[in-house]
Design brief:
With 437 residues, this protein is α+β, with helices and mostly antiparallel strands. It has three domains: 2-150, Beta-Lactamase, CATH 3.30.450; 208-286, Helix Hairpins, CATH 1.10.287; 294-435, 2-Layer Sandwich (Heat Shock Protein 90), CATH 3.30.565. It is built from eleven helices and twelve strands. It starts with a helix and ends with a strand. Bound molecules: adenosine-5'-diphosphate.
């Protein structure tokens, strides 16, 4: 962005300078022309006065001519009598030259044109004398290239200077413009930042507020998550510790040891599962958007999950069905396996005995339907939050951690999938993931 702004400012500076120079040249050119014409007229008047007062003979008029100034005397019928730069006898009839015609009708005449006699570009000033003759003076016209040619070295110098100035100003201005923006990240912790117009451009204030709000929300979520994790870890550990203490202090009867070991084993298993899911979530958090890796076919993946969950389902007489057509998307196979597994696992755990779980795969979607306890409407929006459970004891009793659906949501989002829930209490639940690939 910095380079872009610098370049834009530089171009703007250079463009303004070029426009300014062009306008100056045009104005200067106009002034020079006026000046030349005034001088020409003065010379003409002076020569005419000298000649009319009889101080010189017609042939002496050539003496007034110089390398620059050309003097011509023309008779009333247009014949050239004297010319300071060409042989008068060889010159054609001048009665039709515009400046001569004007001089004859108005008393004087102007023209700027190519000289037919000399082939140069000239200014002409002609005036009618009392004798009816016409005295004409002319000088070479100044053209823009001629004028620039003279000013050439100075102009190049000015252009180089302007170029350097444009670069320096562009760099300095950009630095100045961006300084408040660059210093924003270091000040984001200050809650008064957005309202302080000396530190933040007013146009950026909503942006700063949004970032600050997001930060606060993230921080709050992080704190809640830490508190929840600590709490979830504490419960099984308290149980494990309590039972171990009973054995240690001899409070437990030796014949109960096996039972106690069973409880400790189960609680340790829960701990391991919880820690595993926390690790998976943090891995998902870290991987961000970079999940797309391979072509993953969902129907086959659902069938693999069915095999893994088959024995847990059959223990409660629950039938697992996988239907639909094969459909593949670009994604991460392990993550998508987890998504389907968690949805099917929930559909089994929150099902009634002898119920059914149906997984359907279609073009761009996957749905998991069960005939279970359902989710009350008021909870449906929140079940994807970390550690949110409708019925804590049911979740615990079935080996839930409260993290399964947050993993599902995370994986779905990373694969550009949208989740929808349809559920009726005591009838069943359908969770559908629609992929917008
Ligand atoms: P848990 O490990 O507790 O199952 P999840 O994140 O997988 O955690 O689900 C969150 C909550 O959503 C569960 O505790 C449960 O109350 C509810 N839930 C999820 N799936 C279903 C389902 N298929 N039927 C009924 N309730 C469900």
């Amino acid at each position: 962005m910095e380079a872009k702004i610098t370049l834009s400012l530089f171009y703007m500076g250079l463009l303004s300078a070029v426009i300014a120079i062009t306008l100056s040249v045009i104005t200067f050119y106009g002034t020079i022309q006026e000046q030349i014409q005034r001088d020409l007229q003065a010379s003409g008047d002076m020569v005419a006065t000298v000649y009319e007062n009889g101080f010189i003979q017609p042939d002496d008029l050539t003496k007034f001519g110089t390398e620059d100034l050309r003097v011509t005397l023309i008779s009333a019928d247009g014949t050239v009598l004297v010319d300071s730069q060409a042989a008068a006898s060889e010159m054609d009839d001048h009665s039709q030259r515009p400046e001569i015609k004007d001089a004859q009708s108005l008393g004087f005449g102007w023209a700027a044109r190519e000289s037919q006699t000399l082939g140069t570009s000239d200014y002409y000033y002609a005036q009618e004398l009392e004798s009816g003759e016409i005295l004409r003076v002319s000088v070479a016209a100044v053209t823009v290239p001629m004028m620039l040619g003279q000013a050439y070295p100075g102009l190049i110098g000015i252009l180089i200077l302007l170029f350097i100035l444009a670069v320096v100003f562009a760099v300095l201005l950009t630095k100045r413009l961006l300084r408040p923006i660059k210093s924003l990240p270091a000040q984001l912790d200050d809650p008064t930042l957005a309202s302080d117009t000396t530190r933040v451009y007013p146009e950026l204030a909503p942006f700063v507020l949004e970032i600050q709000n997001q930060r606060a929300m993230r921080e709050q979520l992080r704190q809640e998550f830490t508190a929840n994790v600590s709490h979830e870890l504490k419960t099984p550990l308290t149980t494990i510790s309590g039972y171990a203490e009973m054995i240690e202090t001899g409070l437990a009867k030796p014949e109960d040891n096996k039972k106690i070991a069973g409880v400790i084993h189960k609680e340790a298993g829960r701990l391991l599962q919880l820690i595993g899911e926390i690790i998976r979530l943090s891995e998902l958090d870290a991987s961000g958007e970079e999940v797309r890796q391979e072509r993953v076919e969902l129907l086959g993946l659902a069938k693999e999950c069915r095999e893994t969950l088959e024995s847990a389902a059959s223990q409660r007489g629950i039938r697992l069905e996988v239907t639909g057509c094969t459909w593949a998307l670009w994604g991460n196979r392990t993550q998508l396996w987890e998504l389907i597994y968690n949805l099917m696992d929930n559909a089994i755990r929150y099902n009634r005995d002898n119920g059914t779980v149906t997984v359907e795969v279609g073009q761009g979607f996957l749905s998991v339907r069960d005939t279970g306890i359902g989710i009350p409407r008021e909870h449906q929006a929140r079940i994807f939050e970390r550690f949110y459970r409708v019925d804590k004891s049911h979740s615990r009793a079935t080996g839930g951690t409260g993290l399964g659906l947050s993993i599902v949501k995370h994986v779905a989002e990373a694969h550009k999938g949208k989740i929808s829930v349809e559920s009726t209490v005591n009838v069943g639940t359908e969770i559908r993931v629609t992929f917008t690939e």
